Amino acid sequence: MVKEREQLESVVVNALQMRQIEDRIFAASMPVAALMEKAAILCANRIQQLYPLSQISRVGVLVGPGHNGGDALVVARELHLQGYQVNVYCPIHKLKDLTAKHAQYAQNLGIPFYETLEQLYKCELFIDGLFGFGLTRPLTGEIVEDIELLNQWSQPVVSIDIPSGLHTDTGEVLGVAVRATYSLCLGLWKWAYFQDQALEYIGSAERIDFGVPAKDAWAVLGQPAPVQKMTLTLAQRFLPLPRPLVTHKYKQGHLLVICGSYRYAGGAILTGLGARGSGVGMLSIAAPKSLKPMLVNHLPEALIIDCPETESGAIAELPNLASDFNNYSVIACGPGLTSDAKSIVETVLQAECPLILDADGLNILAQLDSISRLRKRPAATVLTPHLGEFKRLFPEIDNPHSDRIKAVVEASRLSGAIILFKGARTAIAAPNGCVWLIPESTPALARGGSGDVLTGLIGGLMAQQVTCLAAIEKTVATAAWWHAQAGIVAAGERTELGVDAFTLSQYLCKVF
Ligand SMILES: NC(=O)C1=CN([C@@H]2O[C@H](COP(=O)(O)OP(=O)(O)OC[C@H]3O[C@@H](n4cnc5c(N)ncnc54)[C@H](O)[C@@H]3O)[C@@H](O)[C@H]2O)[C@H](O)CC1
Ligand SMILES: [K+]
User: Fold this and answer.
1) Relative to the alpha carbon of 66, which ligand is closest?
2) pTM for the predicted model, two decimal places
3) Which of 163, 322, 373, 508 has its CA 20 to 30 A from that of 54?
4) ipTM of the complex
5) Which residues bind (6S)-NADPHX (predicted)?
6) How many CB atoms lie within 10 A of CB 49?
7) How far is the centre of ligand 1, averaged over its atoms, from the C-alpha of 107 (Å)?
8) Where in the chain is the domain with CATH 3.40.50.10260?
9) What superfamily in CATH does domain 2-223 come from?
10) Does domain 232-241+249-510 have CATH number 1.25.40.10?
């Protein structure tokens, strides 16, 4: 049971799936009111921990017409009984039956209901129970003005299940949305919590585990769930640890990194440092000849393969040592190549080992009819685009930022590649339909070179686990989680301004 509860922490669902799971619970005779009571009491307890009566006495509760409003009324009742001064604002008068019952009881307890939100301006805390996962169409009319007013005020807001106005799946703002301080996600994590466009509304995200039976989740989603969030426990499980007692460097993977140019010399160092952080057994770096002394200086453990250069200082061709791809477990190619290394990317696409393409590797691929090239790859491919690169690679996918999870799934399905779609909430999809979401990150990583570190880290981790190809997406997600955590730890010690890419690489070893 403990294990199942832990598994449910990583499950991420859309609104339809949540409703189907809920329907199974109700069909098995759990009373709707009892489930609401369970969820909302846990919310009330958490709200009291966050905002104890010793600090806050007057609480405004915003109640919508559906069961999100019902949850809010249970919270209102509990806070009232604990001694808070509760004021309710319920802008829509036609309520679902259960919600209406709770409203009646709250009124009978003597909790005051007000006709306008302005009347609640003295409240020191607001509970947002206007809409939950039942919201599908844009908000209009008075409620828009109410939410705009609430957002202008400076008091903290706790949203129940999701900030009202956000689409549960895409995180899109449906007209207007509450800007929450905390969002308490009920039961299972919802997609919106991992969509970049929703983040500024969600505030701090917490899941209220009211005990969804695992069997109902698996019945709806299948097991393992197709969309999961990476956790520390999972990342630890997917790391190549412990190492066998008897091993040697080539058994711990051999990564070939193909990167750098005269213009972008540092990209090669940073990719190498990311690979170093992964613990990979052997690291070879193919780079333009003129970079060799510098690379040896920074990465003395790496084998530097110096390549002939074009006039512009890009790699002109791969010498035998780098073009015999059979020597390597994995290849990572792209950082700092410039667009002049087109033939290198064309060659590397034919390699019969797993390949990671990043940065210029992706830009060159985008000029080569990406999808058909990727479909012809003889081994697994991992692409690591940010939004701009994603749009160039997959022009057929409209507005990928409007639903990043759907977009990454579609890109992976089209190309047969594992796609890591970089963002504030990086999403990774594999052609088998598995999706991994990285739950936390830091804007400190929005800095030149941090992607190069990630490419090296992914490559180095993959090289150590190349025997379990079925699980590449797990390894990629572990690398992305690790990279984000290194950024978080570094920013914690040095502020968000103190995490240059070199520093980031030095924090990788502080995460686990
Ligand atoms: N996760 C769980 O298992 C539990 C969830 N609970 C809570 O229930 C809500 C979902 O409740 P539901 O009644 O289905 O939907 P909402 O409360 O989100 O609101 C729907 C309500 O609003 C009307 N509506 C929809 N769009 C609009 C609009 N644009 N303008 C005006 N009105 C609109 C619609 O007609 C409905 O009447 C979930 O989020 C949880 O908070 C349970 O309480 C516990 C278990
Ligand atoms: K809400």
Assistant:
1) 1
2) 0.96
3) 163
4) 0.97
5) 67-71, 132-138, 161, 336, 386, 452
6) 7
7) 21
8) 2-223
9) YjeF N-terminal domain (3.40.50.10260)
10) no
